[in-house]
Design a protein that fits this description.
The N and C termini lie far apart (69 Å). The protein is built from 9 helices and no strands. The chain is mainly alpha-helical.
Length: 244
């Protein structure tokens, strides 16, 4: 092609696509970003679920105490956990990340772990309310029935209440997982090298932001669709087990 010959739309697309994804093995940057995104999501999800279960069980136990039989220790922890949930739900995720990354862990260079820790703490507050709502939705008679059979509080929760609550909260937990997956893009503001960080890095070198950012958006969309599909299968199997 002559130097002064105008390029076609297809040629422009090919050149920009090549520069964004293929030149200098840049696809590896996106791939590493996806791996980091999934790694952070799993760590944050595990931490969020553990925190959520602990908070939900303590707050539910406090709320279900009989009138005139209030435990002061339970009341203290319930108040403390209410402050945790209120603060986390009342402040933006971006602000929480910047406080953790630039203030509390300012000397740390492990931005991915700081990001995962922050996302897990944030997710724990939302997961706690989801699980607490599920536990409170189970008829109180189920708890009384378990206790009347000689089971203690822990066993009644474990074998009677929690299995029923899980089916009720699974869709909401699935949504929280999807939100968590997308929120991993925020850790790039403190230096976490996830998918959006890779797209931003390529865009700054090529001075062409459209292809890297659209490519990152497509990858996020495909991941969300994949996990939504898997959650749908899991929910259908749970419903099928109920009908047996």
């Amino acid at each position: 092609m002559a130097a002064n010959e105008p390029t076609t739309l297809w040629q422009q697309f090919y050149v920009l696509f090549y520069q964004a994804f293929i030149e200098k093995d840049r696809w590896l940057q996106y791939l590493n970003g996806v791996v980091t995104t999934l790694y952070v999501t799993v760590l944050a999800l595990l931490l969020g679920v553990v925190l959520g279960v602990i908070v939900a069980v303590i707050r539910t136990a406090h709320d279900q105490q009989r009138p005139g039989h209030r435990n002061p220790v339970l009341g203290f922890f319930n108040g403390l956990l209410k402050v945790y949930v209120t603060v986390i739900r009342g402040t933006p995720m971006m602000v929480q990340l910047m406080i953790m990354g630039l203030v509390i862990f300012a000397s740390s260079r492990n931005f991915v772990m700081v990001g995962a820790l922050t996302l897990g703490i944030n997710s724990g507050a939302y997961t706690a309310e989801i699980i607490r709502g599920g536990l409170m939705s189970v008829d109180h008679g189920q708890m009384e029935a378990g206790r009347s059979l000689g089971m203690n509080y822990t066993d009644t929760m474990r074998f009677v209440v929690v299995p029923q609550a899980i089916k009720a909260i699974l869709p909401a937990l699935g949504n929280e997982f999807i939100v968590l997956l997308k929120d991993t893009s925020l850790i790039s503001v403190i230096g976490g090298k996830e998918l959006l960080y890779a797209a931003r890095s390529v865009a700054s070198r090529n001075y062409e932001p459209m292809y890297p950012y659209v490519g990152a958006a497509i990858v996020y969309l495909l991941l969300v669709m994949l996990f939504t599909w898997l959650l749908g299968i899991f929910e259908r199997r749970l419903r099928a087990s109920d009908r047996r």
